[in-house]
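Revision sheet: structure tokens.
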Amino acid sequence: MTKLLIIERPSQFPRSVQQQGHPRRQFMVPTRMSSEQDPQSENAANPQRRQAQPLAPQPLAPQPPPATNPTSNIPLTSQTHPRPTSLRPPSVSVQQRIGNAYRPTPEPQPPIQKNPAPAPAPASGWGTYFFLLTMILTITVAWLIGPRLVEEYHYAAAVGKARGEYEHAVKQLEQAPLTEVSLAYQMVAQRIRPSVVSVKAFKSKEVGFGSGVLLSADGYIMSNAHVIKDASRFQVELYDRRQVTARLVGVDNESDLAVLKIEANNLIPATWGDSDAIEVGSMVWAIGSPYEFNQTITSGILSGKNRRGDAYHTKQTLLQTDAAVNPGNSGGPLVDIQGKVIGINTSIFGKTFQGISFAVPSSTAKFVFEQLVTDQEVERGYLGLSPGEVSVKRAHALGLPDQRGAIVREITTGSPAYQAGIRPGDILRTWQGVAIENYRQVFRLAEATPVDTNVTLEIWRSNAQGVLIEHTVTVTIGKSSNPPMRVPSEFSRDR
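Predicted:
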């Protein structure tokens, strides 16, 4: 398709002619347009677009006859009417528009940096040497002075901590936070001290000393059998320093207990406690006359229960405590937090005090005291069997749920236990409905039961298939007549 391009040439006409109002001449130069730029070719190629966008018919204005250039026969077209100013701004010429159309678009240039930062200069060798030297000096100084600084720091911290703790303790103790605890200790001592006496046993060649405790208002005193052994005369010193002569009422060597009797007025007896109810870890106090220091009181805790006795008292079950017990404390009371007697101090482990002391439990001491006061002798119950400990291995082999109870190791033919049907290998589990914790408890339960009393025992016995079967038997308690058997021991009784 051919298109006419109009080119203005204002320089061909003199300025005077332009000023007289003559229109500028325009030359029409034929140019060829591509099909992409020709809207009619696009419509021909795309009939849908031509149908979708029909061109409305425009009325043709009458055109004047073309003029002829006198110098050439090229027809010229001129416009006699003024051109609209809105289509071409007067400030932009045709040459500028044509030049801008064919001028290539310049490529974007990177922004120019103003005053760019200079590149860092390479480090010199002297800087490296100076850095290494500084590091070496720093490490050397830290190695030489560091331990001293650390020591000074810890010392200052320890001093500061000690001073802070001291100031805090002073401030808190001014409020007396332990006053009630101290008063409790004092009240325990004030309750039991009037009932504690010192005992002197005059023997043929020496004078033994020990302690005792008043247990009745009429003057009955309990002490240890080894304190008054082989003595011919006894002297008792009361808490108010009165010295009174005492007589021997009875002795029970199997429990290492003895009872004396004095004649005096205004006596304050102690009260029995329950050694079976007290638990391990409970606070206890020991009172006596160690090394003839009368009315000495020490404190500790109950360290254990059901401990074995010494060589001459194999059937004893003792209380263990860490309260200080020394020579002269024997026969004195062991009391609980209420000042009640839960035991009679009797021995220590070894030749000197090592933090392990023993006392006869009040359940046994009370039983012996009442029989000695009444009959001047102790009548114990008798089963006729030898109990043993249920070990872990044996409990596992027999299928027992725990290690409680006592296993029958030996039995005397014709004894009360034999007549009730108990045999070696049986496991004693309960005594009159009370669980048996260990084999030493059987001795205490049997001896504290009156003679000719019927006792119900629960035993477990394995059948031929090895299955444990529970049995209930009734035993009639007999009277004990066997003397205690001596076995090696490390226990020491002070005299």
